Amino acid sequence: MKRVMLACCSLLLGVAAATAAAASATTDPGDLGPPRGAPIEEAMVAPPNVPAPIHRDYPARVIVHLETKEVVKEIADGVRYDFWTFNGSVPGPMIRVRQGDTVELHLKNDPASHMAHNIDLHAVMGPGGGAVSTMTAPGQESVFTFKAMREGLYIYHCATAPVPMHIANGMYGLILVEPPQGLPKVDHEYYVVQGDFYTTGGYHEPGLQTFDMQKLLAEQPTYVLFNGREGSLTGPHALTSKVGDSVRLFVGDGGPNLVSSFHVIGQIFDDVNVEGGTLVNHNVQTTLIPAGGAVTVVMQTLVPGTFLLVDHSITRAFMQGALGQLVVSGAAAPAIYNKVSGAPAAGAAKPAAGVNDAMADGKRVFGQICSACHQPNGTGLPGAFPPLAMSDYLNASPKGAIGIVLNGLSGKITVNSTGYESVMPAFGSQLNDDEVAHVLTYVLNNFNNKGGSISPAEVKAVRAGNKPK
Ligand SMILES: [Cu+2]
Questions:
Q1: Is 376 helix (H, G, I), strand (E, B) or coil?
Q2: pTM exceeds cut of 0.85
Q3: Residue 17 has pLDDT above 50, yes or no
Q4: Which residues place a Cβ less than 5 A from the ion ligand 1?
C-alpha cells in the first residue's frame, strides 16, 4: 500500500521526481525484486526434451544463449528442406525460467547465415518482445535483458521481415515462466511445437524442396508437423510413459498460419492451462492453440498402448504429417479398457457367402474403406499410402494381412522397394470375420496380385490371438 501511494503521489511531483520514484519502487505484483545469487547459465536441451523443473525460491539472473542457424535437413523421409532455426532444431530449445527472473538473452547469428534474424519472446514486456533490440546480422551477437513479469507458457519466434517466411522456415520455440512456487510434480514432461510448412513440391515429393511463397500466401501448407519433421515423434522417437504415470506436454503452435486443434487419441486432458495462461480447465478432449500461442496439458496414462498426438483438423494428421505417438507401457487395465473379441452384431448373422458373393462383398468393403487410402485401383499414394496392387509385401505373406486389417499397422515398412512410415488404423471393430476375409480375398485376386484366399475361420483365429491373456 505504501508503494502504491508513492507511485501515486509521484504523478503530482513533476517529471524528474516521477522518474526517480519509478526507478526506486514498483507497484507491479509480478516484480519479485532484484536478481540474487550467482547468474545461472540456462541448460539448452533439444526437443522433445524439457529443461529440469526449477526449485528456487528467489529471483535470479538467467543467461540464455541462442544461435540462429540455417540448416538443410530432412522434413520427411527423403525430403530435405532449408530450415532457419534457433540452435539448429525446430522448435528451438525450450527456455525455462521462474517468474521474477531477469533473463540475459544472447542472440548470436551464425556467420554462415544468409539472413539477419532476431527474436520476439511473448514473455517479454517491451518493444517487439525483444525483436527491436536483437536484429542481428550474420556473424554478430546481440544481448538484451528482460524481467519475466508474468508466469505462463509463451512462444518465441524470429520477427525479421518477411516475418511469415522466417516462421514458416522453423524459427520458433517456447519459453516457460514458472510460477514462484513451481509447477506440480509429474512423471514425464515433453515439448512439442506444431508448425505449417510450404514446399514447392507436393507432400512427400523427394529431394531438396524450396520455400513456396504462393502456398504461404494462400495459407495452403504442404506439411503440418510436430517438431519440424514428419516422424519426429513416432516409432523410435515416440514419447513414452508408463501405466499409472502422469505426463505434462508443453505444446506450442508456431504457425505461421494454422490454428491447432490439439488432441491425443484415446486420452483426456485432466488439466489444460488454457492458452498457456493461469486459467485451468479440466477433462478436455481437444484444445485449441492459436498460431503464436501455447498450452500446457497434464494427463494420466492409465491404459497401455499407443496414443496418437494429432491436430484434429484431421486431414493434417493423416495426410500432412501432424502425427506423433505417446507409447504407454505396463500391465493391461481391463477394468478401464478391454477389447472384447468377436465382431459386432451388425452383419454377423449374414448367411455364408458363395465365392461370387464373397468377391462382391470384398469389393464393397474395399470401395467403402480401403480405397480411400490405398486408392480405387490399389496403387496407393506416393509417400503416404503403400500400394496393394502388385504389393510384394502383401504377396509375401497374405495371412499377415489379416492382422494388419484387424489391428492396424504403424512403423517403417518397405513395399516394392519404397519405404513407408505411416499409420494404418485398426478395422477389427468395424469389420466382421467374413468382411475381413472377403476384402483380403478380393485384394489378393485383383490388382495383379498373386491370388489366394483368406477364410473367415483364419480371421477368427487371428482375432482369438488378440484376446488379453
Ligand atoms: Cu529469422
A1: coil
A2: no
A3: no
A4: 117, 158, 160, 166, 171
